[in-house]
Amino acid sequence: MTTQAREGAPAVKSMEKIVSLCRRRGFLFQSSEIYGGLNGFWDYGPMGVELKRNIKEAWWYDMVTSHNELVAPPGAPAPYQMVGVDTTIIMHPQVWKVSGHYDLFHDMMVDCRETKRRYRYDQVVGRWVEYQGRRVFVTVDGEGPTVEQDLLQRALKFFNLRSKQADQLHWDGPVQPLSSVEDRSLVLGPDAKEPGTLTEPREFNLMFKTYVGALAGEENAAFLRPETAQGIFVNFKNVLDSTRVKIPFGIAQVGKSFRNEITPRHFTFRSREFEQMEIEFFCHPEQSQAWYQYWRNRRFAWYVSLGLASDRLRLREHGPEELSHYSTGTADIEYAFPFLPPGKFGELEGIAHRGDFDLRSHMEGKLDPSTRPLQVELGPDGKPRWRGSGKDLSYRDETTGERYVPHVVEPSAGADRAALAFLCEAYDEDQAPDDKGKMQSRTVMRFHPRLAPIKVAVFPLVKKEGMVEIARDIYAQLKKHTTCFYDEKGAVGRRYRRQDEVGTPFCITVDGQTLDDRTVTIRDRDTLQQQRVPIDQCWDVIQQRLRSPEQ
Ligand code: GAP
Which residue from 276, 300, 410 has its CB within 8 A of the most atoms of ligand 1, so it is best to mutate? Predict the structure, then answer.
């Protein structure tokens, strides 16, 4: 990023302000808002759609289009190929049986018998508290920054005390998960009036169910995909047979996924409909660890190259207890979202070493998805009973003649999570001069130019003396190349500010001098510096500055 106009520390990121800006300036709206909204669903407005498209396009361009298969990129064990697919959201139901999603893709939930609310078991946290000999475990449904404060409020309300009586409460032990409490009759649910109303945890499958065709019977049941990855695995053979790709290679896909999250929250962070950007990278089993390392580093560097600050971004290796049923190693790229308590990070992308789990499962099916190593289910005759496709999804190396089931490394990113992280990272407040040179506070979205929804705005300084005609002409020319905005209304300082608020990196102003020498100023959003450039060089100058190091 370019030097910032402000001296001193960046503004504290406030989720409230970011959400309000997103709504006010057309980044994000609640889905079906005029009907009261639908929890867990979000619409992107005119600015948001450009931002998200830019993220997806940057990902596709950097990972697929611009990838040069003839040379190994820095850190890669070898040169590799990349191709893409676009597969359906509804797939054969057997896909989800074999992938393990049908049996294992669930969260544990608890219901409150009193309020009829439902919570994710792992998200309910609480603390033991005693007042006048009565001891309860007060809880909140919380990952937020105010858990301690919320617990105090819950306890005060339960014991009918005022804030100034808080010191009469006797707290026992730290904040703990609900699972730490054996006697549920002492648990005060997050919204309940009396203790003992939470049910025992139950499994809740996160896949949305639907029916294919006119009959809504079980035999026609199907699911909206909870990940785009399976569309890639089931097409592994098609891609091999229809292209000349050879291992190592990756197949990329961007598309919608759906999860019936029990508690969608934190703006778009956990939505029920979202977009994923996934790569399944197929390699020789002996090389898979090296490729896993490569993709961890490569993906981390991608976010940094687009302006996510390294101190809010981290790469964290999963402990064995955190690994998915298919994974023998996973690292998360995480971002310190402002809605989380200080020091806590939220997942942006997972890079998983999936071994041969998926291809082998789609070949053979298996007895128990949680069992490792894989076991093939045997029929009464002692022969394998195929629950997979029965198709041979192994790979034959033409040079060595070796046949094997490839291992897979999967960098799996969320487009909406990335958009949210870029929005949070971009948000800033500082001071900038107004038309009279007086410093005024401004809100500025410091998007990387590649991601900015509008790349350039064009203004005539004033609406006279031929400036409008020239400005409109520049606008018409630039529109052919990029997203461009024309504005001739109000003081120019106000026009700059409106562009700063949506993160437009460059503003071109046609002024009196333009009429003499056909030069314009290009004002930089971050440095506030103005460069004078001949009109016919505007696009070249801007194009140069729009590039990121990845390009
Ligand atoms: N194929 C592997 C897979 O789907 P995941 O960790 O469940 O792995 C990958 O999802 C990414 O998808 C996450 O890192 C996140 O960015 C995004 N994602 C997952 N669930 C999401 C949700 N409910 N809302 C928004 N994004 C989500």
Answer: 276
Instruction: Give, using CA atoms, the residue closest to atom 12 of ligand 1.
Output: 414
* β-pair type (506-510, 519-524): antiparallel
Nearest CA to ligand 1 atom 20: 270
To test ligand 1's pocket by mutation, which of 225, 299, 347 has the most ligand atoms within 8 angstroms of CB?
347
Which run of H or E residues covers position 139? strand 134-141
Residue 264 in contact with residue 120, Cβ under 8 Å? no
3-class secondary structure, 308: coil
DSSP tag of 285: G
pLDDT band at 367 (very low <50, low <70, confident <90, very high): very low
Q: From ligand 1's centre to the CA of 413, what distance in Å? A: 7
Return the CATH number of the domain spanning residue range 3-105+208-422.
Answer: 3.30.930.10
Transcribe 367-426 into DSSP letters: S-TT-SS--PPB-TTSSB---S------EE-TTT--EEPPEEEEEEEEHHHHHHHHHHHH
Order of strands, sheet of 346-355, starting from the edge strand that comes earlier in the sequence:
81-84, 249-258, 273-283, 407-414, 346-355, 329-335, 313-317
Q: Where in the chain is the domain with CATH 3.30.930.10?
A: 3-105+208-422
Task: Say if CB 324 and CB 370 are below 8 A apart.
Answer: no
Structurally, at CATH architecture level, domain 454-547 sits in 3-Layer(aba) Sandwich (3.40)
Position 377 scores a pLDDT of 55
Looking at residue 81, its amino acid is Q
Mean pLDDT over 278-288 rounds to 97
Residues with CB under 6 A from ligand 1: 227, 229, 259, 261, 270-271, 274, 276, 278, 347-350, 410, 412-414, 416-417
CB 293 within 8 A of CB 283: no
User: How many Å apart are CA 452 and CA 500, to the nearest integer?
Assistant: 11
Distance from the alpha carbon of residue 258 to the mean position of ligand 1, in angstroms? 10
Q: Start-end ranges of CATH 3.40.50.800 in the chain?
A: 454-547
pLDDT greater than 70 at residue 372: no
- How far is ligand 1, taken at its centre, from the CA of residue 109, in Å? 19
429 in Cβ contact with 23 (< 8 Å): no
Strands, E, within 197-300: which ranges? 202-205, 209-211, 221-223, 249-258, 273-283
Residues 189-220: b if buried by 16+ CB within 10 A, e if exposed: bbbbeebebbeebeebbbbbeeeeeeeeeeee
| pLDDT tens per residue across span 42-54 | 999 999 999 999 9
Q: What is the 276 CA–ligand 1 centroid distance (Å)?
A: 7
Instruction: Of 442, 527, 422, give the one whose Cα is nearest residue 27.
Output: 422
What does DSSP assign to residue 349?
E
Q: What is the per-residue pLDDT across 483-501, written as a single tens digit (0 to 9) for each?
A: 999 999 999 999 999 999 9
- Comparing CA positions, the residue from 206, 196, 195, 203 lying closest to residue 121 is 203
pTM: 0.90
Nearest CA to ligand 1 atom 22: 270
The ligand 1 atom at the shortest distance from the C-alpha of residue 227 is: 4
